[in-house]
Amino acid sequence: MERIRLAILGVAALALLMLPTGCNREESLLDANNPVTITVWTYYGGVVLNAFDAAVARFNETLGRERGVIVETYSFGGVSDLEAAVTASARREVGSMALPNIFQAFPDTAYLAQQMGLLMNLDNYFSPEEQAAYFSPFIERGRIGLEGELRIFPIAIAAEAMFLNYTDWRPFADAHGLTLTDLRTMEGVARVAQLYYHYSGGRSFYGRDQFANFMIIGSKQFGTEIFEVEGGRATININRQAMRRIWDYYYVPFISGYFAMHGRFRSDDLRVGDILAYAGSTVASVFFPADVRAEGETRPIVGMALPSPLFAGATPTIIQQGAGMVVTLATPAEEYASLLFLKWFTEPEQNILFAGQSAYMPVRTESMDIQRIRAAMAEAGLALPEIADAALSLALQEMQTHVVYATASFTGGVEARAILTHDLQNKAIADRAAVLALVEDGLPRAEAIARFNTDAAFDAWLTQFEARLVAAAGG
To answer: By three-state DSSP, how is residue 289 classified?
Structure first.
């Protein structure tokens, strides 16, 4: 592996000696009569993949044809599948495909690839003036190098929103005198969910995608970064107050049956009537179901996008979501072609249209305007679904009014994030099953829940949780 890494670095060094730094790379690298082909791997699926492929087709038919670049794309349909394929290719495992020129990567995965010496330093090719055109938090998220160099290029970023089955919400809310403002905080959602449980005869109200983000933002709202990173190493900081809020207003409602998690995504749970609302990526708006299929019937519903609930009294904080693009070391022509495509894709004309189709936010500051997104969709003859419009509007507004946060990359980051994703969530699922078993055996429901909702149980979980994070981060 070390010999492979040194060979790659040698090729990269030679390329850098041959070419000038900055954006104005030599035109002679490309020849329209002998086009160079570059490959792009993504995890996009459904509507989002269609929008991305349409943009790639436009590039190939216009600037790509003019300059001599052909972009070929392949989607793995899921983040974990893409990450596994990239890892196998980077390690040159038997049966793996050649490493692509560009692939989507979250900071933790990109950091691993960077440690293997596979990624271009994009600071050498995008001037400070060019980088200044992009929304600063999006650029800073891509600085995963030990010296703060830019390795991940932002092409589209998501935030979080809450999605509500408004059709079934209305009669319930009217019966209890509730309004949408009751859903602004996690404390409010927990209270509403308890009411809905009894109103509906034992149905859950709320679910959550990407639980790691909830843990990270829950802590950050109370002023603590769980991962304090310096020099690629992380110090683990556990804010007891934040963790207790997460316990009280997620774990306890979950084991009580007020919150739930069944399918792969919470939109799946909402589609079959298992929940009425969920928090997830703004991109989830384009997958929001048009109907509910439950109890042998299918009913059309109207969806609504609301701000993702935060904790009461805490600092309003939102997390950046969505992977950026990294460029792997290759031939000078392939590297230049890769950069040409990424710059083209993030120009307002392309990026704004992709945002409207996918419910991602565009990444240039001038493009982060819902009116421009609406206009671009209308000009292209495309409909911007009302719920996607609302989700994007909320996200773009919160980028200006909330603290925008993204975790830094570090050794052990993949493993640590997996702990954030699964540790408390899996405990909640197991303990909910145990509560149901106790009730089935005749124990009153309140007593069954009380067996798990104790200070001692919280302390035991928190101690083990912190120890696992510390071990994942290397002690």
So the answer is: coil
Q: Within 13 Å and on the Cβ side, how many CA atoms surround 50?
A: 7
- How far out from the chain centre does Cα 236 lie? 22
- Round to whole Å and give the CA distance between 44 and 135: 23
Distance of alpha carbon 184 from alpha carbon 187, whole angstroms: 9
Nearest CA to 341 out of 58, 146, 118 is that of: 58
Cα gap 309→181, rounded to integer Å = 10
Instruction: Tell me 257's DSSP state.
Output: T
CB 238 within 8 A of CB 168: no
- Please list the helix, strand and coil fractions of the chain in percent, rounded to the nearest 5, in that order: 55, 15, 30
**Crossing angle for the helix pair 386-401 and 348-358, to the nearest 10 degrees:** 120
On whether the CB atoms of residues 167 and 387 are closer than 8 A, the answer is no
Contact 383, 76 (CB under 8 A): no
Q: Which amino acid is at 94?
A: V
pLDDT tens-digit readout, 171-185: 999 999 999 999 999
Query: Which residues make beta-bridge pairs with 38?
Result: 71
Provide the pLDDT for residue 147. 79
The runs of H, that is alpha helices, within 308-379 are: 332-345, 348-358, 370-379
- CA 58 – CA 140 distance, rounded (Å): 29
- Single-letter code of the amino acid located at 124: N
Is 386 in contact with 299 (CB distance < 8 Å)? no
Query: For 144-200, where are the alpha helices, taking DSSP H only?
Result: 166-176, 186-199
pTM: 0.88
Q: Kindly write down the DSSP assignment for every residue of 362-406, as one continuous string.
A: PSBGGG--HHHHHHHHHHTT----HHHHHHHHHHHHHHHHSEEE-
Tokens representing 156 are 């589209």
Please state, in angstroms and as integers, the Cα–Cα distance from residue 379 to each residue in 50, 209, 370, 384, 386, following that order: 18, 33, 14, 11, 17
Question: Are 209 and 265 within 8 A, CB to CB?
Answer: yes
At 306, give phi and psi (nearest 5°). Answer: -130, 165
Q: Mind listing the pLDDT tens digit for each residue in 301-346? A: 999 999 999 999 999 999 998 889 999 999 999 999 999 999 999 9
* CA distances, 288 to each of 255, 302, 417, 433 (Å): 26, 10, 26, 28
Per-residue pLDDT tens digits for 425-465: 999 999 999 999 999 999 999 999 999 999 999 999 999 99
Among 1, 14, 22, residue whose Cα is nearest residue 121: 22
